[in-house]
């Protein structure tokens, strides 16, 4: 036997990580690999995708979705438009709502704190399907929401049947355009199979109802994260700010929010990813309607595969969505970076480079000296 | 970290092995290519145990199907397990993908072409095939093959709110028999909060008027779209004109999700729905009195749509012969009448029609549609195209019909040419 380091026990090491590798491999790596293969194949949903009957078609599925004019691309672009408005609406509002709720229930002198914490967190615990069904009734044409609106003399829309976009409605109300007869300069040029008029519709009334529901449901989860961070906030810092004469609002903006920065970044990132993947609500409530205004990439992917039997495209949509989320999240993290920390890191790097250069120069000089002597 | 890097290839190897193992699991069923005729039906050795997947309308249907399959199982010594699907499309797709589909299942006519081209179906004919309504046999025929035996069917008819009808001073003689008369009574009945006729603007309703004008979305062989033909345009224009005048309304316009709801809440005096409206009316709006009459005739004769499902048998099934035998048992006129009694479907056999109308005289208008109704679009890959047309039809009132149908034709040719 060769002598070996008694600290290195490879066999045991592998043994210990084996369960994790097997589980991850079986339930994560293999399915992702299979899905990637399906997105590049013409698999028809019959038998195993890895059989001789299934052919490799290269990027055909992707180009049908992104490059060729047709229904596949049109639907994907519609779903991107819808989800874009959905994300823009939901993420800031749910973050702001979660933060305000957290600050409220963090108040040391609030009576019944536990009750409010539980109450605000409650929607996050209930299944989203159950809540969706509830909202379906609340927002029905003759439902509770419209009845309440009627008290104030507002004639509420038939929420889940109304496909008009909010920007369209706003422009119509202000008098810039008429929904029934959109201006020619907006309907004529088309980008990726959709006119400007369609691109700039804003979220439809139906989608807005879903947005309200999602904001209400998820704010509780994120409130919990903010609450945990708030409880880490040292009392001394706040007391110091009080001594300095800062009022409540100044304390919130200059002490609390900077302290919560990492949590805000986390909440916004999670919000971004979650909203781009929205599926449950569309599956339960609208199935993409009315007039495709609640179609989302995740639901479209499901529909392409299970309803239309177009598995390759369904998988391709999933990967396109993944790429989109990845890019957007990277951009968002870069935009929200801590500028001070960023600058510090940059300065550090510059300093190290400088030191290296100096070191090199000194060495060179010494060598030169040694040679010349 | 170091250990991990050094062993990265090993980890990939494990991943690959897993993938291969998974693929090996799926290898067993590629060779038995099933097609065509009863001679090469697979038959189980000894007793067969069949799995049946159904999308049930409720407790009553499940119980009736279970009772019928149990009776067959007892008689033949086989076993049948009835599974209720909560999402039929998805569960069926999972079965086919896993190579272990249910032996026998409900299959909608609009899905037949798709499943047949994929190779998921075992084509068969039930006993006394000519006894099924010809329109139903057509609905399940794709590529010159009838793929399965019709289970039952529904058709569209016109429902009239009796009270509103009488209030407006209309009598039995005024029941519309032509499209002009339908427009006229809709105008008469259109009063205040109550519209004349509520219709869901989708291919599955508006299509009836297209048929009445002698048109259809695709040509006879379902090889080319005919959306821009004069007949189709005329059918859509008829509905659009009436919507413009306000006598026909969209279910969404009167705060309803579908025609039946609008009719039940008395937001409209008439609607066009199928026999499923019976269940909705008796459970949700038992106080609304109504009559059902046949769809009025269009300029090119009577036109209605029919919706139907068949008993699909999987090409992967190991007991096809037994499955077909079970279908024979389930489609006897006696059994079909029992189903009709239990959960209100119409028998697909013509020989059961007389007994059915005798038992359910009020459904005469629905079953009459079996003679002239038109089944759904029967071509593969059309789901997305039809869905797109439906989403455009939602705005039918102010739509540019020519443009809408041109885009339908473009989309449809793209998939039909493949």
TrEMBL record, chain B:
InterPro entries: SBP. One of its GO terms (cellular component) is ATP-binding cassette (ABC) transporter complex, substrate-binding subunit-containing. SUPFAM superfamilies: Periplasmic binding protein-like II. Pfam families: SBP_bac_8. One of its GO terms (biological process) is maltodextrin transmembrane transport. PANTHER family: MALTOSE-BINDING PERIPLASMIC PROTEIN, MALTOSE_MALTODEXTRIN-BINDING PERIPLASMIC PROTEIN. This is Extracellular solute-binding protein.
């Amino acid at each position: 036997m060769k002598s070996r380091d008694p600290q290195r026990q490879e066999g045991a090491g592998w043994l210990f990580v084996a369960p994790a590798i097997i589980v991850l491999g079986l339930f994560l790596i293999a399915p992702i690999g299979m899905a990637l293969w399906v997105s590049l194949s013409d698999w028809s949903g019959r038998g195993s995708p890895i059989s001789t009957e299934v052919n490799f078609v290269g990027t055909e599925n992707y180009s049908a979705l992104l490059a060729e004019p047709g229904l596949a691309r049109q639907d994907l672009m519609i779903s991107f438009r819808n989800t874009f408005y959905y994300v823009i609406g939901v993420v800031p509002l749910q973050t702001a709502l979660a933060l305000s709720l957290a600050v409220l229930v963090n108040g040391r002198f609030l009576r019944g704190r536990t009750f409010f914490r539980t109450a605000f967190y409650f929607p996050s615990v209930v299944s989203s399907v159950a809540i969706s069904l509830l909202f379906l009734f609340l927002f029905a044409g003759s439902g509770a929401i419209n009845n309440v609106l009627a008290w104030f003399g507002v004639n509420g829309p038939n929420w889940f049947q109304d496909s008009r976009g909010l920007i369209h409605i706003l422009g119509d109300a202000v008098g810039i355009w008429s929904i029934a007869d959109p201006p020619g300069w907006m309907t004529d040029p088309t980008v990726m199979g959709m006119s400007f008029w369609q691109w700039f519709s804003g979220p439809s009334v139906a989608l807005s109802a879903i947005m309200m529901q999602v904001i209400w449901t998820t704010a509780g989860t994120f409130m919990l994260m903010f609450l945990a961070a708030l409880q880490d906030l040292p009392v001394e810092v706040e007391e110091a700010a009080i001594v300095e004469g800062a009022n409540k609002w100044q304390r919130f903006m200059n002490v609390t929010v900077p302290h919560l920065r990492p949590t805000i970044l986390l909440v916004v990132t999670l919000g971004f990813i979650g909203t781009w993947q929205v599926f449950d609500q569309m599956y339960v409530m609208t199935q993409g309607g009315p007039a495709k205004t609640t179609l989302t990439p995740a639901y479209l992917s499901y529909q392409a595969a299970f309803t239309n039997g177009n598995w390759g495209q369904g998988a391709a949509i999933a990967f396109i969505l993944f790429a989109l989320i990845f890019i957007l999240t990277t951009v968002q993290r870069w935009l929200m970076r801590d500028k001070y920390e960023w600058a510090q890191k940059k300065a550090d790097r510059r300093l190290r480079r400088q030191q290296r250069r100096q070191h090199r120069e000194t060495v060179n000089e010494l060598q030169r000296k040694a040679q010349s002597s | 970290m170091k250990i991990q890097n050094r062993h990265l290839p090993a980890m990939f190897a494990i991943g690959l092995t897993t993938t291969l193992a998974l693929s090996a699991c799926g290898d067993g069923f590629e060779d038995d290519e099933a097609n065509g005729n009863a001679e090469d039906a697979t038959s189980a050795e000894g007793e067969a145990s069949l799995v049946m997947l159904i999308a049930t309308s409720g407790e009553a249907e499940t119980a009736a199907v279970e009772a019928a399959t149990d009776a067959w199982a007892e008689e033949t010594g086989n076993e049948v397990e009835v599974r209720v699907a909560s999402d039929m499309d998805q569960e069926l797709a999972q079965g086919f993908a896993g190579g272990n589909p249910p032996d026998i299942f409900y299959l909608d006519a609009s899905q037949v072409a798709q499943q047949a081209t994929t190779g998921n179906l075992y084509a068969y004919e039930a006993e006394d095939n000519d006894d099924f309504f010809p329109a139903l046999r057509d609905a399940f025929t794709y590529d010159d093959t009838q793929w399965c035996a019709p289970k039952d069917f529904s058709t569209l008819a016109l429902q009239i709110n009796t009270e509103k009808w009488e209030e407006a001073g209309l009598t039995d003689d005024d029941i519309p028999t032509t499209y002009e008369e339908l427009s006229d009574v809709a105008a008469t009945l259109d009063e205040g909060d109550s519209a004349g006729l509520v219709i869901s603007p989708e291919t599955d309703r508006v299509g009836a008027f297209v048929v009445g004008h002698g048109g259809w979305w695709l040509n006879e062989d379902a090889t080319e779209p005919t959306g821009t033909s004069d007949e189709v345009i005329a059918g859509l224009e008829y509905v659009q004109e009436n919507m413009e005048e306000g006598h026909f309304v969209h279910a969404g316009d009167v705060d309803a999700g579908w025609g039946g709801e609008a009719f039940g809440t008395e937001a409209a005096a008439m609607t066009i729905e199928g026999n499923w409206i019976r269940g909705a009316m008796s459970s949700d709006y038992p106080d609304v009195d109504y009559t059902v009459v046949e769809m009025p005739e269009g300029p090119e004769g009577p036109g209605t749509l029919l919706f139907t499902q068949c008993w699909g048998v999987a090409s992967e099934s190991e007991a096809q012969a037994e499955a077909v035998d079970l279908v024979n048992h389930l489609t006897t006129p006696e059994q079909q009448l029992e189903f009709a009694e239990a959960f209100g479907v119409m028998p697909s056999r013509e020989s059961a029609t007389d007994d059915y109308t005798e038992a359910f005289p009020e459904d005469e208008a629905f079953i009459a549609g079996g003679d002239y109704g038109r089944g759904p679009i029967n071509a593969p890959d059309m789901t997305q195209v039809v869905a797109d047309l439906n989403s455009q039809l939602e705005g039918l009132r102010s739509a540019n019909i020519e443009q809408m149908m041109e885009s339908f034709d473009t989309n449809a040719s793209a998939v039909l040419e493949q």
